[in-house]
Predict the 3D structure of the following.
Amino acid sequence: MSLDVTLAIASAVIGYIAGSLSFGYWIAKAKGVDIFAVGSRNPGATNVKRSVGSKAGNLVFILDFVKGLLATGWPLLLHGNSESGYVYGLIGLFAAVLGHSFSIFTGFRGGKGVATMLGGVAALMPLAALIGAVVWLILFYATRYVSVASIALALSLPIANWLSGQPSALLWVSVALAIVVIYRHKSNIIRLIKGQENRFERKKSARDSSEQSETTIEETK
């Protein structure tokens, strides 16, 4: 298989720029909130939902998902489900996750990239993405820990690809993505072991929020 260097570079650049679009930061800023100064101090959907409100948080999740979907999906539209299409799509996916985590628009600050990763996975491996979403929902509602649900989602991807007999390239990519997500959640894992991780709760009244603000530190996306 021969790769078009120009297309590979374009996939990386477009993916990084798309991933860098920090919707969480901008939406929170429009509401008068500096998302890097509250809660977990990252622009992920969970922190926005907690600090700004459910509607804002849900919108951030959708937009972060879509940017991963588009960054990964457009090369597939050009090449279809071919080996080269997978490669360009994977370049776009990794670049988008990198851009989300280290956004050029926010001084190279960002979130953990789970929603963006899931959008890209939905384009590349829809069955694994569906299984991962179900795993996330089950673990989240069972534990109320976003970090636990996100790590379980990441781990489910290579397992789902292996069980469904997907191409080895997708299997190893899902392994790499799982490693990236787990690494990005290393601080959450430490807090889970120490029993200090915070469970997700809906945004409360101003009085309740002020009472709880001292405990909402370092949360996941």
Q: What stands out?
A: DSSP finds eleven helices and no strands in the chain. Residues 5-215 form one domain.
